[in-house]
Design a protein that fits this description.
- The complex is a heterodimer of chains A (109) and B (371).
- Chain A has 109 residues and is α+β, with helices and mostly antiparallel strands.
- Helices cover 28% and strands 21% of the residues of chain A.
- Chain A has one domain: Ubiquitin-like (UB roll) (Roll), CATH 3.10.20.
- Chain A is built from four helices and five strands; from the N terminus they run H-E-H-E-H-E-E-H-E.
- A five-stranded mixed beta sheet of chain A has the order 2-1-5-3-4.
- In chain A, a hairpin with a 2-residue loop joins strand 3 and strand 4.
- Chain A is globular, with a radius of gyration of 14 Å.
- The relative contact order of chain A is 0.21.
- The model of chain A has no long low-confidence stretch (mean pLDDT 92).
- Chain B is an all-beta fold and 371 residues long.
- Chain B is 1% helix and 42% strand.
- Chain B is built from one helix and 30 strands.
- Chain B has a four-stranded antiparallel beta sheet, with no helix packed on it.
- Chain B is globular.
- The chains are: A alpha+beta (109), B mainly beta (371).
- At the A-B interface, helix 2 of A face strand 6 of B.
């Protein structure tokens, strides 16, 4: 019964990565990540980096957790880049209805 | 028959160029890591199939890639470059204290005898080491922690540790160079360091012959005579015959002594190559003529090498890590330009031909002589 309860609490989060990071992680399309507990930017990034350790340091600083300057976080047509890592993500992301978008900022290049 | 593998880092990816010993027909592989800046790719002297690459991006930061099959496939390894101990400050461009911040790996120098051991020179200037094939990196903090560290100041390209030379005849001796701090030597495998800049004189710093503060662009050494060092400084081409204890200028009859790369012939320790660049405000060759200069006398007397190189309307630059020599019997010389050309000479510089003409701006060129 406990296993079923944990499974029920496990949210399946859709994450979309920029092309360079998809190449680095050798994935195509969106990633679906099981996230236990509160669905926050921090817990989603923790799950992402646990599955794809080569992404460590490419989205946020490995020590401080601070978002890299030219990375943006979007979801549900909102810019979540400046929200706190522990803030809950929108319900539509937590339910899997909408993806959590990790985006390279538009900055030349 | 021996062959060569040229490893090219560019602003938008890495390329691997291969040829047999004749070096007249080339296969081009790449771009690897397309769209990323590849500051440096270098092979292990102890295992020709082991390569390391520094991959970086203003968006996504630093990645280190490793190949165990000569560049056919790559795996990302460790990218956690964490300064040890107190971070401290160096001087910022305006002279104010600025905390050390990791930006990127400029140069990877594999150990001479262990494929899993490799050094990394980084911006802001620091030296890191891995002994597990790049999975984990530890700073050797004695260099950054040198008492002169708080006075170091970045050059125009950032405060980068761009040169690492390992002395093959004396265990533990190594040299590094930092823009714009100068040259440093360690005799205890990087634990402690001393500046080795006596004899350098630089305009643009308050004390022209200060112990540190010089914008050294590149050092070169011939492995048979590791106490003889050659230096391309911001201005001035220099030579030391005593492992950096003292330097003398060998610019001689060069048309300009500004430039970035310097290298030594594989079999002739007194044969040296530079690419003179007009000035620090005109980063292109004098008169629009791309000329490598060769000295067969260890400096002072230089001859232009032009055959096969553009002699009009050429306004490219050749960056500090973008020249290399192979060790075939007839020594091959290679260099890459900011215009995306990689030129090769299979006869020590007498004749040149482009291997490729239209790559992204070339940041680095290394060559492996394959058995």
């Amino acid at each position: 019964m406990t296993g079923e309860t944990d499974a029920a609490r496990m949210a399946l989060i859709r994450v979309a990565l920029p092309a360079h990071l998809r190449t680095l992680a050798r994935i195509s399309g969106e990633v679906e990540l099981p996230v236990s507990g509160p669905v926050t930017q921090g817990s989603v990034l923790d799950a992402l980096e646990a599955r794809y350790p080569m992404l460590c340091g490419t989205i946020r600083d490995q020590r401080t957790g601070r978002r890299r300057a030219f990375i943006r976080f979007f979801a549900c047509e909102r810019d979540l880049s400046h929200e706190q890592p522990d803030d809950p993500l929108p319900g539509a992301v937590a339910s899997g209805a909408e993806p959590y978008l990790i985006v390279g900022a538009m900055a030349g290049g | 028959m021996s062959s060569v593998r040229v490893l090219v880092g560019t602003r938008k990816g890495a390329f691997v160029l291969t040829a047999d010993g004749k070096r007249d027909q080339w296969e081009v592989s790449g771009p690897h890591f397309a769209g990323w800046e590849i500051y440096h790719v270098k092979g292990s002297p102890a295992d020709q199939d082991r390569l390391y690459a520094s991959q970086s991006s203003g968006w996504f930061g630093q990645v280190i890639q490793r190949s165990d099959d000569g560049g056919a496939s790559w795996e990302p390894v460790g990218n956690d470059f964490n300064y040890q101990g107190r971070t401290g400050t160096h001087q910022w461009y305006d002279g104010t204290p600025h905390p050390w911040e990791f930006a990127r790996v400029w140069h990877l120098e594999p150990s001479l005898d262990d494929p899993d051991a490799v050094y990394a020179g980084v911006e802001d200037a620091g030296l890191f080491h891995s002994d597990d094939g790049g999975k984990h990196w530890q700073e050797l903090p004695g260099l950054r922690g040198h008492e002169s560290g708080p006075s170091w100041q970045p050059g125009a390209g950032g405060m980068c540790l761009h040169t690492i030379l390992l002395d093959p005849s004396r265990a533990g001796r190594m040299f590094t160079a930092i823009s714009a701090a100068g040259a440093f030597r360690s005799d205890d495998a990087g634990q402690t360091w001393q500046p080795v800049n006596r004899g350098l004189r630089s305009e643009g710093i308050p004390d022209g012959d200060a112990e540190v503060g010089h914008c050294v662009h590149r050092l070169a050494m011939h492995p048979s005579r590791p106490s003889v060092l050659y230096m391309q400084k911001h201005w001035d081409v220099m030579r030391s015959d005593d492992a950096g204890e003292s330097w003398r200028e060998i610019s001689g009859d060069l048309p300009t002594d500004f430039g970035f790369p310097i290298d030594v012939h594989a079999h002739e320790p007194e044969t040296v190559y530079v690419v003179p660049i007009t000035s620090d405000s005109h980063h292109f060759p004098p008169e629009g003529k791309l000329r490598v200069y060769r000295s067969r006398t260890g400096g002072d007397e230089w001859e232009p090498l032009t055959r096969g190189l553009p002699q009009e309307h050429c306004y490219v630059n050749v960056l500090r890590d973008a020249m290399a020599v192979d060790s075939l019997e007839s020594c091959g010389i290679y260099f890459g330009t900011t215009g995306g050309q990689v030129y090769a000479s299979a006869d020590a510089g007498d004749n040149w031909a482009p291997i490729v003409r239209d790559l992204p701006a070339v940041l680095s060129v290394e060559v492996q002589t394959l058995s």
